[in-house]
Amino acid sequence: MDQQTLRFHFARQTKVLVAIIATTVCTTSLTAQTQNALTLDSCRALAISNNKSLKMAEEKANAASYQRKAAFTNYFPEISATGTYLRNQKEFSLLNDEQKNALTGIGTQLQGGIQNSMQELLQNHPALAANPLFVQLSGALSAIDIANPLNAMGASVVDAFRTDTRNIYAGVVTLTQPLYMGGKIRAYNKITQYAEQLAREQHNAALQDIILATDQAYWQVVSLAAKKKLAESYLQLLQKLDGDIEKMIKEGVATKADGLSVKVKVNEAEMTLAKANDGLSLSRMLLCQLCGLNIDTPLCLADENLDDLPLTNETFSADTELAFQNRPELKSLEIASGIYDQKVRVTRSGHLPTLALMGNYIITNPSVFNSFENKFKGMFNVGVMLKIPICHWGEGIYKTKAAKAEARIAHYQLEDAREKVELQVNQSAFQVHEAEKKLTMAQKNMEKANENLRYATLGFEEGVIPPSNVLEAHTAWLSAQSEKIDAQIDVKLTLACLKKAIGTLE
């Protein structure tokens, strides 16, 4: 077998191998279309529904909504009830022991005093003792029992003065209606409204971050899958070329140096394929994690078996005004600036007069409304409470100035963020234009690589080009195809980054 025949045989085998690879790719693409392949939108939907950070941001927004509703209740009167029970070791006494003894023995003392007075009168006045009428009257007076009734009356007085405070029950129902709190309630309600809006904007920012991360992971898998197919086809081609070169060496029409150079390329292609497989596996794991799936879940993406990625004809410009309106980060800073403005009012209100209407219903046992009684009795009272700060040595002024300084910081942060967003939008637009230029150049290089490969194959068939030149043509074609894939992916990713910079990534 001469050299020209071997070269023709190698070229024909190359064409057959390329046809087999193309047929395999088309068959795989059709199979993916018939299966439930995940599109970019479906991956986004899975990521949005399963992402834990997004769920936490949503719960923060719900919490902010409840706090706003709670703040609004400060406009309404507050009603509270308090009850207490107290057990005392000793009873409170309004009378001392001497007074108690005097009251309980008042009858005995009075009757004894009367009898003693009558006896002294009879002894000191014999004429009265000789008067039978007086003697009869004094005996009748002595016979009257006034001790027991008076003693009982004194005991009842002592009992009436008992407080019975060893067991004390008390309860109070209080109604408080703020009338003027220095503007604190109104400012606090605005703060909670801003806080709810801030939580919503943070949720939107997290949503766009998740969408961008999902897009990047999706197109990374598509890119590596395409490069894996290229590496496989290139390896098969080199292995076929290695076998043909071995035959050519045996026939004496090729040198061992040609064989070694092909073997080196085969080893490099095997390493490239191994790296592509590893990178593809890791990228699929990342996409599974973002979508909330098990990292071992086999994913089949709708775009990974396409020869050319479809590119939209969307046109975007560096519209900074649209970015200022849509960017959730800027909206968050604007809301934060409003919150700090309201904090100034809250701080100032702490040093202004406050006025509130108060009403109470108090119930106690023992009760004192009808002396001391072991009964539950109560009463209403209504009043107005006015608190006027007089002197705090300038504390309120200093705190208000500090709050104003924090508000100014928030305004400066907003201005700085607007400048950075403007820069980011312009940079993203520049990157989109650069990616489109690279794609145009890659397409032109691909056309040249195809033409170069065609000429190399024809020259090899005619016997005017050595195998090393064919190998170089295939290597150049592989590089051009890889650059084309990278350029297509770069266009899609830069467009996604530009949409996020403008705030229209959905």
List the helices and strands and how they pair.
Elements: H1 3-34, H2 40-50, H3 52-72, E1 78-87, H4 97-104, H5 106-124, H6 126-130, H7 132-143, H8 147-160, E2 167-180, H9 184-251, H10 256-291, H11 320-326, H12 328-349, E3 354-365, E4 377-387, H13 395-462, H14 467-502
Antiparallel strand pairs: 1-2, 2-3, 3-4
Helix pairs in contact: 1-9, 1-13, 2-9, 2-10, 3-9, 4-8, 5-8, 9-10, 9-12, 9-14, 12-13, 13-14
Can you tell me about this structure?
There is one protein chain. This protein is α+β, with helices and mostly antiparallel strands and 506 residues long. 71% of the residues lie in helices and 9% in strands. It has 14 helices and four strands. Helix 1 runs antiparallel to helix 9, helix 1 packs across helix 13 and helix 4 packs antiparallel against helix 8. The chain is rod-shaped. The two termini are 64 Å apart.
Keywords:
506 residues; alpha+beta; 71% helix
Written as H for each helix and E for each strand, in order along the chain, the element string is HHHEHHHHHEHHHHEEHH
Radius of gyration: 50 Å
Low-confidence runs: 1-35
The largest β sheet comes out as: 4 strands, antiparallel
What share of the residues does DSSP label as strand, in percent? 5-15%
Report the helical percentage.
over 70%
Number of helices: 14
Sheet with the most strands: spatial strand order: 1-2-3-4
Brief characterization of the structure:
The protein has 506 residues and is an alpha+beta fold. It has helices at residues 3-34, 40-50, 52-72, 97-104, 106-124, 126-130, 132-143, 147-160, 184-251, 256-291, 320-326, 328-349, 395-462, 467-502; strands spanning 78-87, 167-180, 354-365, 377-387. It has a four-stranded antiparallel beta sheet with strand order 1-2-3-4, with no helix packed on it.
